[in-house]
Specification:
Layout (H helix, E strand, L loop, with lengths): L1 H57 L5 H84 L1
Helix pairs in contact: 1-2
InterPro entries: Flag_assembly_chemotaxis_eff
Keywords: Cell projection, Cilium, Coiled coil, Flagellum
Protein name: Flagellar FliJ family protein
């Protein structure tokens, strides 16, 4: 019976290690997702500022080279925005995958934990039953010796 518990505990250690590794992978994916999202936010904010500046300057006289320069900046930012949107999407997919693996690993660990609890309860009940049986035998022997 102890061998069963030892086997379950070894498997539990393995599952717990797997869960901890998946937790680390999930956190790394979360950090990357947040980093890429923050970079995308910064790009969008810079783009918005340039567009606002362009709109206000269009109401006054604008030099052609300033217009061309602003247009080039906007195009660069749009290109960076598109690249970062793709990275954010991929990071979100990766994050969801890591979360799913983490959840599955946690479920597997908890399932084994329940199995171990049931086995321990079974062992305790069996030992209690054996103890009661031995006490009954001792009582019978004492009775027979005294009344016998």
């Amino acid at each position: 019976m102890n061998n069963q518990l030892k086997s379950i505990e070894k498997i539990m250690e393995l599952k717990e290690r797997h869960f901890n590794e998946s937790q680390v992978q999930y956190q790394l994916a979360m950090d990357y997702f947040e980093d890429v999202g923050q970079r995308l936010f910064s790009i969008l904010k810079a783009k918005e500022q340039i567009e606002t500046k362009l709109n206000s300057s269009m109401k006054t006289r604008v030099k052609a080279f300033e217009l061309v320069n602003t247009h080039e900046q906007l195009e660069r930012l749009k290109q960076q925005e598109n690249e970062l949107q793709a990275k954010v999407h991929q990071a979100r997919v990766n994050l969801n995958d890591k979360e799913e693996k983490r959840t599955k690993a946690h479920f597997e660990f908890k399932k084994l934990e329940k199995v171990k609890e049931r086995r321990v309860m079974d062992i305790k009940q069996r030992l209690k039953s054996e103890e009661n049986q031995q006490l009954d035998e001792i009582s019978v022997q004492q009775y027979v010796r005294l009344n016998g």
